[in-house]
Amino acid sequence: MTPPSAVAGALFAVSVEQSLPTSLPERAIEVDVGVALPTAFGGLRKVLRACEASAPSVVRAVADAHPSEWNRLFPGSMQGVADLGDLALSPSERRLHRESEQTYWILSVAARAIVETLRATSRALVLHGAGECDLVSLRGMMRAAEWARLDGLKGTLLFTGWQMRRPHCAAIFESRRREYLDSLSKRLRAPTAEGTCTRSSREVEPAVDLEGRYLRLVVDTAEERATRVAAALHGIRSCFFTTNYEGSLLAAEQGLLLLEGDPDPRLASRVAQAWESLDTGFVTPAIEIDRSSLGDVEELKALLHRSIGVVQVFTGSHDEALASFGKGLECRVPPEMQARLHMFRALTMTKRLGELPQARAEVAAGLAALAQGTAEDRALQEGWLRNVGALTWFLERKLDKALVEEKQAMRCVGELHDASATHLKINLISNASYLQESARQFTDAINTWRRFEGISERWGVNFAKHHRYRLAGLEFAAGSREDAVEHFQQAYASAEALRDSFHRQVIAAELGRIFLDAGQMASAVDWFARAEQHARDIGEPLMAAESLAGMGLAAERTDWTEPLRRALASSTWPKQTRALVDALARGDAAAIHALMPRPRTKLNRPFDSVSLY
Question: How far is residue 7's CA from residue 5's CA, in Å, rounded to a whole number?
Answer without folding.
Answer: 6
